[in-house]
Please model this.
Amino acid sequence: MTEPASRSASAPAPAGAPLGRRATALGVVALVAMAAVAVGLIAIVAVGDRGTAGASPTPDPKSFAYAEVKPAPPLALTDQDGNPFTMATVAGRPTLLFFGYTHCPDVCPTTVGNVNQVLEAVGSGPRVVFVSIDPERDDVAAMSTYMKYLPDAYYGLSGTPSDVNRYATGWGVQYAKTDQHADGSYAMAHTADVFLVDAQGMLRAHFPFGTQPPPITEAIRALLAETPPPVDPPATPTLEPGATATPVVPTPAPTTAPLTAAPAADLRVTVVSTSIWAGATTPVIITLGDANGQPLDGTVPMGVRIIGANETATGPDVTATAILPMGERIVSYVAYVTIPAAGPWRLDVIGADGTRGSAPITALDQGATAKVGDLAPDVDTPTLSDVGGNIKVLTTVVDAQVDERLYSTSIADARAAGRPYVLVIDSNRFRVSPACGRAITMIKYLLDRWPAVTFTHLEPFDYQVITEEPVLSGSLTDPPLNQWTKPFGMGDATWPATAMPWIFVVDGQGVIRAKYTGIIGSADVDLILSLITGNGVLGG
Amino acid sequence: MLKRTGALTLALVVMTLVAACGGSTSTPPSGAGGFLVLKNVWVRSAASGGMTAAYFDITNGQLVDDELTAATSPVATSAGVHETTTDASGMMGMHEVSGVVIKAGQTQSFAPGGYHVMLIGLNKDLKAGDTVELQLTFKVSGTIKSTATVRDN
Model:
């Protein structure tokens, strides 16, 4: 952490760059001697390059990862613009988070410097959250001033002393006043680790103070390969070479070239949706940037069309609805398009002001799964009251992480009450795909955000609870779907029972408005709920 | 001792040297037998009114130990020698120290997360590429002037 060569890596080459790296001790003598000409002759003892600067090998990024992946602890504070901030604000993006204070002269700026180097390396997809543990001095205005000097990816959070204390404690972060002087000045001691949260809101790694940028960069790149961020990195989501995608992940990889050359673009189109379906209407969530990458604000109406071979549009232009979700800063657009067949297509966006842009998309075969636009199967999913309160029958989520709200309402009851609902079909225990367990975790972040929506978790497989342990009624390679999951159409050759998890977003009339499988981003659900409830809809 | 370092007889004139690349040397009072050499002197960029830290490596080429006890800079209303330490619970905190000993013949690094000179109450914005004058006071060598380059990191 005291390595001068890497300290200077991102700074504009300063005149005072590490001398020891460039000049020998003799060089030092020569320079000093030249400077001394006016004063007189000097001599100097030889200066060896110091030992403390020796480069240490880059640690393995995995050594910073948590062995057990858990949801990130909650945060509900205020950002530098006075907007409320929760972890849902950064859902869908890898996020670095650390605690500090603006009057911090040494530790925090060092961390900021390292993090900024990481941002330069990984692009603008990730977010950075700086949480002040100095509520006496750091208010929204102080954070606003501080953030002016930092990249746009930063959120600077402040809050009341009790809120800051509560949330910092949740993150295992301690802080205390130190070095208090008669004039009222003081310093803060604080835990200085940098935490890494993935796009699904899971706490994945922590880096002790002084961790150099490379291992952090590598860890973020791995997460970006898992789940490309919803906006920014221009046009094509990042997918690292050699990254392994799960079979069911419908991430448009860079190899999915558009069928025909894209027209000249003055809009940057980023596809947010993780699942886009062929054979029926399907929502496509995008964000749009201008030629400079600045996000559009939703004021210009946008049309969307799907282009196939020979530059043929598959149908008339569809108007995209502009939505600024609660607490978000970036406008997203949702368009319901119809794509005739599975495979690669090009999505063209045409602005009412004549601007154009495009992005490659890949449509998935729906198989026998319940279609977007159809009524959802009217299934009476089991609830806590149906099973005498024995929650282990309903979920394989381990006790401490169970949120009983996910098991309190059957989707049939939500339907009868005219409430929108989100059905999460996922298993925490019987992990038939690498994405399993994540959808449940991710959805917890949306629970508090959408009080008027029912969220229901459904285990997909038949299992028995003999003692405490759930036992699958079959094998993980061919798991038996239970009676509530089957009506949703999984279990055929296209979408076998091993393709999990699934999320269905259903409106108050019982119509499926979106469905997703595999790696699912919270924005996938959040945007559709915004649309269904009319929350944050700007127009379109 | 004096004969071994013939340099000393030439170094009677009190002088402050500011070498290129942020290096500085001291002139020792007679008897010390060498120089302090400052290298890699830099200050982190910061906004006017705020505070920041200065970092450097000091090599003590003298034959006796020396100690950095105070610092000043024209860009700061006050400055002090601080150390960041980590306590048993993992909290990193900063406290003022009365001095930092630089042993004879050895190099002491002032670096992020460790010893640093804190500059408090900056009277102007310090932007990358700017230079900042520092005056460091040592027990044996007296006050050394040095020019630090402002860097972002």
Observations:
- The two ends of chain A are 51 Å apart (CA to CA).
- The domain at 25-226 of chain A is CATH 3.40.30.10 (Glutaredoxin).
- Chain A is about 20% helix and 25% strand.
- The longest strand of chain A covers residues 281-289.
